[in-house]
Amino acid sequence: MSIATHSPVRSIAAHAILIAYTAIALFPVLVIVVNSFKTRNAIFRSPLSLPDAETFSLIGYQTVWAQGDFILYFQNSLVVTVASLALVLLFGAMAAFALSEYRFRGNTLMGLYLALGIMIPIRLGTVAILQLMVASGLVNTLTALILVYTAQGLPLAVFILSEFMQQVSKDLKDAGRIDGLSEYHIFFRLVLPLVRPAMATVAVFTMIPIWNDLWFPLILAPAEETKTVTLGAQVFIGQFVTNWNAVLSALSLAILPVLVLYVIFSRQLIRGITAGAVK
Amino acid sequence: MGSLTLHDVRKSFGSVDVLKGIDLEVGEGEFVVFVGPSGCGKSTLLRIIAGLEDATSGSILINGREVNSVPPAKRGIAMVFQTYALYPHLNVRDNMSLGLKQAGMAKAEIGQRVDKVASMLSMKELIARRPAELSGGQRQRVAIGRAIVREPDLFLFDEPLSNLDAALRAQTRLEIAKLHDHLKATMVYVTHDQVEAMTLADRIVVLNGGVIQQVGSPMELYNNPANLFVAGFIGSPRMNFIPGIHAGRGSIHTVGVRPEHITLDPDGGDLEGTVTHVEYLGADTIIYLECKDVGLIIVRNFGEQRIENHKRLFARFDPRRVMQFNADGSRS
Ligand SMILES: Nc1ncnc2c1ncn2[C@@H]1O[C@H](COP(=O)(O)OP(=O)(O)O)[C@@H](O)[C@H]1O
Ligand SMILES: [Mg+2]
């Protein structure tokens, strides 16, 4: 720590900026959660006040519970998110390992090709994707969503992870080879644990857009039994009347699973300190 | 026990030729040190011997068996790395056992071997610790233990002491020398430090630019270097090189003389210069003499000698120890 960062003025300024930023970032979430516990009138009359004895109401949650099959929607969202995440991390890490570890013809080109997807939004290909899914009979299945999200998440995962894998000690991998470990063993047991912080970062960046996505569920899997939470919440948004209690309650509930996943990954971020492997 | 034969080993990375035809015989039980400046291809050569890198051409024989297409684990070698390369998630015992476990050895026998080596290296109390809980010196000791446990035909060391501080380096160097005496194993050791090479080696292989410059015992290299590069690389402080015309030997391109083979004389000698700096090391005194047209000449006198700065003195070369080099660097 340098002396400068201990100066109280700097420290206060830094904290003020960070607190302001946190407040701004959390405000919309807070408004959603707070209002989900209020009556419809109270939401409109004083959207910023906390619920009191008079305005407190669980009507939104009751509606969500009663209408539609929200447990199923949650389950669908979770299945899609977790499965896509697992595939993105597995294949992304494997591709990154191959790119950073092995010298082969076209290595750099392959790396560029795999990273290209970062710059081209996958939604541009929606029509082709839909045709593909129709042709392969995958419309209205969770598989369709998982495949699309895996494709969507891979480029960034490969890009970030290959940077990190290059930093894993070459000597460590070679020591493993001399001890007779297979390349799979080296990858799973030596390299992956050392890039765990990077994996957690990639997981967070990959997970949130998948969980929040409305586009592909709407197009590829709008059937009742494959609806995700974001799509399910749309039933409360009508052309003329919107059931705000239910919408806010559904959104509040939708925050919880991602929050849990995020907590899991951020612990990995912190724990993934691996001093002592080399030097 | 094991022997190693390299036959015309070449290696290119893309269009860069890193090794340009290496031929070498290492006998059973020999301690051979590859020495050379950074980037000359020492590690690459060692990695080719280990099987971690493929040779572009040429053949590698361990115990007379060609191993070009044998994977590292089956070559009967063990390697110690500069960065220790211990498995971070395993404790010392498991670090040392892993290779044997992979080779399918029985648990009991592995345990015995590990215990034996641990007590040999006096690190029994470390056996349950993770690498993160060890100091640098201890980590390197574990890395050496991991190599010994495998009882390989051939030990490979890639600059194992470079990450240690000076005191520990000297101590570990001694331990490696003792280990070699004790195990009587064949060892190939890579370093850029000529002192390490001189103190450890039965034979030194001097590499430069991917070519072997000379192979010989430490004293052969010191007393009889094959060329300008070896003469300059072996010995510390390094040999003085003086253009022949300035040393009164016009027919010779370059004259080489080691600092310890020069005496200072106030009255006359081969070169006249001014003392610019004196280092008192106790056992030796190093004198830097600035000579006209030639530049700095380093003189090493034994014992403590008071020499005034800025004094004009003559350097007198020991005529029996002066070496002569041709324009292309070869000895003449
Ligand atoms: N994987 C590689 N790809 C390209 N060049 C390499 C690779 N490994 C080593 N080199 C080059 O080969 C030369 C010799 O390297 P190295 O054997 O590590 O030298 P040393 O161990 O003697 O310092 C260096 O110029 C280095 O840049
Ligand atoms: Mg090296």
List keywords for this structure.
heterodimer, A: 279 residues, mainly alpha, MetI-like fold, 13 helices, 70% helix, 0% strand, globular, disordered C terminus, B: 332 residues, alpha+beta, Rossmann fold, OB fold (Dihydrolipoamide Acetyltransferase, E2P), 2 domains, five-stranded antiparallel beta sheet, 8 helices, 18 strands, binds adenosine-5'-diphosphate, binds magnesium ion
Task: Give the arrangement of secondary structure elements.
The complex is a heterodimer of chains A (279) and B (332).
Chain A: H1 8-35, H2 40-45, H3 59-66, H4 70-101, H5 107-115, H6 126-135, H7 142-166, H8 170-178, H9 183-194, H10 196-212, H11 215-220, H12 229-232, H13 244-271
Chain B: E1 4-13, E2 16-26, E3 31-35, H1 42-50, E4 57-62, E5 65-66, E6 77-80, H2 92-102, H3 107-120, H4 136-149, E7 154-158, H5 166-183, E8 186-191, H6 194-200, E9 203-208, E10 211-216, H7 218-223, H8 228-233, E11 240-243, E12 254-257, E13 262-265, E14 271-280, E15 284-291, E16 295-302, E17 312-317, E18 323-325
Parallel strand pairs in B: 3-8, 3-9, 6-7, 7-8
Antiparallel strand pairs in B: 1-2, 1-4, 4-5, 9-10, 11-12, 12-18, 13-17, 14-15, 14-17, 15-16
Helix pairs in contact in B: 2-3, 2-4, 3-4
The structure holds adenosine-5'-diphosphate and magnesium ion (MG).
Ligands in the structure? adenosine-5'-diphosphate, magnesium ion
Provide the CATH top-level class of the largest domain in chain B: Alpha Beta
Supply the CATH architecture of chain A: Orthogonal Bundle
The global form of chain A is: globular
Structural class of chain A: mainly alpha
Q: Give me the CATH fold name of the largest domain in chain B.
A: Rossmann fold
Main sheet record of chain B: 6 strands, mixed
Could you estimate the helical fraction of the residues of chain A in percent? 55-70%
- The top-level CATH class of chain A is Mainly Alpha
Q: Name the CATH homologous superfamily of the largest domain in chain B.
A: P-loop containing nucleotide triphosphate hydrolases
Question: Regions of chain B with pLDDT < 50 over 5+ consecutive residues?
Answer: none
Query: Percent helix among the residues of chain B?
Result: 25-40%
SSE ordering of chain B: EEEHEEEHHHEHEHEEHHEEEEEEEE
How large, in whole angstroms, is the Cα Rg of chain A?
23 Å
- In terms of quaternary structure, the protein is heterodimer
Mean pLDDT across every amino acid position of chain B:
94
